[in-house]
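Worked example (supplementary).
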Amino acid sequence: MRQAVRLARMEIFDTRLPLAFPFETSFGRVDHREPLIVRLEDRDGAFGFGEAPVALRPHFNAETNVTAWHVLSEFAAPLLRSKELSEPAEVARALAPIRGHHMAKAAVEFALADLIARRRGVPIARVFGAEPRPIEVGVSLGIESRVEALVERVAAHVSRGYRRVKLKIAPGWDVAPTAAVRAAFPDLRLMVDANGAYSPDHAKVLAELDWFGLLLLEQHLDPEDLVFHRDLARTVKTKIALDESTATLGAVRAALELEACSIVNVKPARLGGPTAARLALEATVARGKGAFLGGMLESGIGRAANLALAALPGFTIEPDLSASDRYYEEDLVDPPFRLDPETGCVSPAPGPGLGARVQEDVLARRSVRRQSFSLGSP
Ligand code: OSB
Ligand code: MG
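After joint prediction of all chains, the assembly is encoded as:
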């Protein structure tokens, strides 16, 4: 057996990261992200970083930047005290007494995976059972005030090399912007995401989206109602993908069983970490359904780990995972992630763990609060 990691310390950073350009979804417009970054250290001084991509508001899911801080500091830290852990999945087991709060727990599991990879001197992908490689990625673009501005935004990203684009939609911003982007880019791999903004009363407008040859329609209805999604999936030709509705591995299994979707957005933080993400992907593949890896506008810390997971076999659509400059002017990692315009790929940086170096000075400067917790035996 491999030598177990003896945890000594956990530090939490509460960050404020200004976005390169505002991002508007059906929940509203944001110009910052506020992820918590977790740094774990073991008794030999080895360390690893993980990210909880939470926001200030509980719109995507019930977690916020404040609940994640509360859960990590009050409940996760005591459960991790004096723990010896040999693999990331053991974090999920150690934190199992905490119900929900997946993003908070995911940050710890990702940090342990990075720490283990650095100790072994291997890329984090290996710890996930994947072979690190360049990944063809897609970009997720927000709602704009005018259709022309959206078409320009899409054009800028297509010219940079993105070959798959996801548009955020909401009632009143759906058929017209989708039609305009499709008219300007007849062959683009295009999909839309409503973040739960529609109801079954909108069946007619949702059916109109069938005209545009979309790869998928993501989470158009109430996240808590799989049966709505199943019923509506039967009335539209476009494939349905679920994000918020598949908040847990159990919900992924239920959605597949019900045929509420034919594609799963495998979003590691939403599911509770890399182990849950791998299991969700495996369940989806076993059912013969499609999958893509989703993102939460993570900093380079969360994105490096997601990029490693995106190399797992079974994904059928490019991940929501773009270059650093799509998100932040100043990323928390160096080098920043770049898109190769020739191949449409983002590559992991060479090196152990996350590959890219975490810029601890930038992390400190971008944090409004940080706190360190001793995890060693008293
Ligand atoms: O619904 O997939 C989503 C970002 C924040 C919250 C929810 C979502 C998103 C994205 C961004 O679509 C994907 C990315 O990280 O590039
Ligand atoms: Mg989504």
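Two points are worth noting when inspecting this output. The pocket of 2-succinylbenzoate (ligand 1) is lined by residues 60, 140, 193, 195, 243, 294-297, 320-322 (CB under 6 Å). The first strand starts at residue 5 and ends at 15.
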